Amino acid sequence: MTKDNRINQFGNEDRDSEHAINFDIIGRVSSPYKEKFAIPRQPGLVTAATGKITLLNHANNLELVRGLEQFSHIWLLFVFHATKQQGWKPLVRPPRLGGNKKLGVLSTRSTFRPNPIGMSVVSLNKVMLINKQVEIHVSGLDLLDQTPIVDIKPYIPYSDAIPAAQAGFAQEQPNDNLTVIFTTQTIDFLLNLSTEFPDLKCLIEQVLEQDPRPAYKQKKSHRMNKDTLEDLTLIDNKVYGIRLYQFNIKWRLISASKVEVFDIH
After folding, report:
1. Most confident option among 74-88, 130-144, 215-229
2. What is the C-alpha to C-alpha distance for residues 143 and 139, in angstroms, rounded to an integer?
3. How do 179-182 and 258-264 pair as beta strands?
4. What is the per-residue DSSP string for the chain?
5. What pLDDT, in 10s, does the model give residues 142-159?
């Protein structure tokens, strides 16, 4: 057996070479986001999004997370498992630039990358051992359900937070959030679920406030009169749906700054 073909601690062969490195999945995410659409584009924007990381196989060992609860936040390194089969291109269109300008993929947070690796900072709520299963409960996550986790690291404020950092086109957090309203029918539905899903209404609001529609839709919601600037027609009259937990939530744009949730089932 050569030095590039050794058995690692997980019982797999190491195939570390000049061109490729294999990683073991150490955990899986349980998340309210059941599809890619409507996942916030950055972590921490939807604080009501709670979930957990279940450690797997040899990583399912409480000793691996001893002392982790000293930290309020953690880094999650993960695989974009739902998009990796689609490959990648050197140029992408960042949503923050309206989807019109191309930048190099390594200059963006695009999910379509040479290696489909992502990273997110999330709030650490608690670490639990339930029936010999280690669970790390988090909030503010932006990960698809069943996302594979390849590493977890503590967030270190003095080194990870750099107040003077420059972020180019993404320096400031978007502040043009939408207003979300609910029909009487959907409010009654959520009230009936308030015991089992107490934060569902807040989660829906925070997700839709971010306007999850494609960037080109966000820029072309209304047709204006060029002379009077009067709002003439709502161009985007499409009915949208998002899946959170086991629920399908239907919503639509009713003005340039407001959406209505009209059906939940």
Report:
1. 130-144
2. 11
3. parallel
4. --TTS-B-TTS-B----SS-------EEEE-SB-SSTT--SSTTS-TT-EEEEEE-GGG--GGGGTTGGG-SEEEEEEE-TTTGGG---SEE--GGGTT-S-EEGGGS--S--SS-EEEEEEEEEEEEEETTEEEEEEES----TTPEEEEEEE--HHHH--TT---GGGSS----PPEEEE-HHHHHHHHHTTTT-TTHHHHHHHHHHT--S-HHHHHTSEEE-TTT--EEEES---EEEEEETTEEEEEEEEETTEEEEEEE-
5. 999 999 999 999 999 999
Do residues 136 and 66 lie in contact, with contact meaning Cβ atoms separated by under 8 Å? no
Do 45 and 142 have their domain in common? Answer: yes
Domain-embedded: residue 88 = no
Is the domain of 126 the same as that of 195? no
Residue 187 lies in a domain: yes
Mean pLDDT of all residues in 241-260: 93
Structural domains of the chain, count: 2
Report the C-alpha gap between 121 and 140 in whole angstroms. Answer: 8
64 and 134 Cβ atoms separated by less than 8 Å: yes
What would the two tokens of residue 84 be? Answer: 């990796």
- pTM recorded for the entire structure: 0.83
Domain that holds residue 142: 27-81+116-156
147 and 38 assigned to the same domain: yes
- Are the CB atoms for 67 and 87 separated by under 8 Å? no
